[in-house]
Design goal:
By secondary structure, this protein is of the alpha/beta class. The protein is about 60% helix and about 10% strand. It has a 5-stranded parallel beta sheet with strand order 2-3-1-4-5, with helices on both faces. The protein binds thymidine-5'-phosphate (TMP).
């Protein structure tokens, strides 16, 4: 891999889609089958500074933010994450997998909270220019099922901080229905980059779909590189 820039892959979707489990399984697959040990990271967060901002945003008592303030906080965290972790790793030839990235802002703060997409794009360009993921998996599930699953996950977790990381989960079903539509719209508008995966399937089927979509997208990338 030396000399070649790494790939940036993101996992997106509503709450309770099993993203984190699927990322772990996909990282194992990359290591065993492709000889790639990816850097695993997440948003909001991913660096010490960005994790401090995460706590303000995702915890129940973190604050009652105005939606634009919230985007600015998310973007500040994203800028830290990008310049201190994601870009240096990619430049060094490593692959990076992030549990959420900018599509979450488009979906949650745009489709969910109603901020204008134009404004979100302007802010994103300020912090990231035209940088975008090479591939994005959008894990799709009925929001009622997702919220049920994510509630169960939170109840079972041993980590006290994670237990109260439910500020967004508490925003209700209508909000999460808008989110789902938003993610599907993002996928429709970016068919080259995004693959929608049915997250209601059993865990191992979801993983099989992810691997299939990965193989398809990357053979496409290779063909485009050869032709152009
Ligand atoms: P997680 O539960 O997947 O770790 O994500 C934390 C929460 O942060 C999740 O409910 C979605 C929310 N979020 C946004 O609202 N906008 C964003 O841009 C990101 C990255 C996350």
């Amino acid at each position: 891999m030396t000399g070649q820039r790494g790939k940036f892959i993101t996992f997106e979707g509503g709450d309770g889609t099993g993203k984190t489990t699927q990322i772990g399984l996909f990282a194992e697959y990359l290591a065993e089958n492709c000889g790639i040990t990816p850097v695993l990271t997440r948003e909001p967060g991913g660096t010490a500074e960005a994790e401090k901002i995460r706590a303000l945003l995702v915890q129940r008592g973190g604050g009652d933010w105005d939606p634009l303030t919230e985007v600015l906080l998310l973007s500040a965290a994203r800028r830290e994450h990008l310049v201190k972790k994601i870009l240096p790793a990619l430049e060094a030839g490593q692959w990076v997998i992030s549990d959420r990235f900018v599509d979450s802002t488009t979906a949650f703060q745009g489709y969910g909270m109603g901020l204008p997409q134009q404004q979100l794009q302007t802010i994103y360009r300020e912090i990231a220019g035209d940088f975008m993921p090479d591939l994005t998996f959008i894990l799709d599930i009925d929001p009622a099922e997702g919220l049920k699953r994510s509630g169960r996950h939170l109840a079972e977790t041993a980590d006290a901080a994670e237990k109260t990381e439910d500020r967004y989960e508490r925003m209700g079903l209508e909000f999460h229905a808008r989110l789902r539509d938003g993610f599907l719209e993002i996928a429709k508008n970016n068919p080259q980059r995004c693959a929608v995966i049915d997250a209601a399937l059993p865990l191992e089927h979801v993983q099989a779909e992810i691997r299939r979509a990965f193989a398809e997208k990357f053979s496409l990338h290779r063909k485009e590189a050869l032709n152009g």
